[in-house]
Amino acid sequence: RQKHGRFVDCVSNDETFFYHGRFCNQQTFHQLENLTNVPKMFECPISLQLMMNPYVTSCGQTYEKTYIEEWMQNNDIDPCTRQSLQREIYPNHTLQQIIINFLNERDIYVS
User: Fold this and answer.
1) pLDDT digits (tens, 9 = 90+) for 72-105
2) How far apart are CA 25 and CA 14, in angstroms?
3) Pairing mode, if any, of strands 62-64 and 22-24?
4) What's residue 2's pLDDT?
5) Chain centroid to CA 35: how far?
6) Which runs of consecutive H residues, i.e. helices, occur in the chain?
7) Which has more confidence, 37 or 22?
8) Of 12, 15, 41, 102, which sits most exposed with the smallest number of CB within 10 A?
9) Which residues contact 110 (CB under 8 A, 6 or more apart)?
């Protein structure tokens, strides 16, 4: 599963923040956690969280990469369409850019 949340280095006491696998600063993390009015098409149907790394299946459905990969380890059908899944998934660059633009319009910047 991908990193999410606040992590503290036991030796240096340095804090790092990850929002569903994406490194971010504390302010950005809290902005993302408290984001409202997110369009449904930006949410992963499995995690119900904002997708940061959207991937599309052979059925044409988009999911957060980590969650669909985890799903595919034990299942061979698409969780939404219930159609047979091929093992290949592909990045949905267009949706990812739309999500990034949506965040940038709200002064939220992710790396």
Assistant:
1) 999 999 999 999 999 999 999 999 999 999 999 9
2) 12
3) unpaired
4) 57
5) 14
6) 26-33, 65-74, 93-104
7) 37
8) 12
9) 19, 22, 24, 28, 32, 52, 100, 103
- The arrangement of strands across the sheet holding 15-19 comes to 5-8, 15-19, 22-24
Q: Among 29, 4, 25, which Cα is nearest to 14's? A: 25
Query: Looking at the predicted structure, is the pLDDT value of residue 6 above 90?
Result: no
Q: How many CB atoms lie within 10 A of CB 44?
A: 21
- 């990969």: which residue's tokens? 69
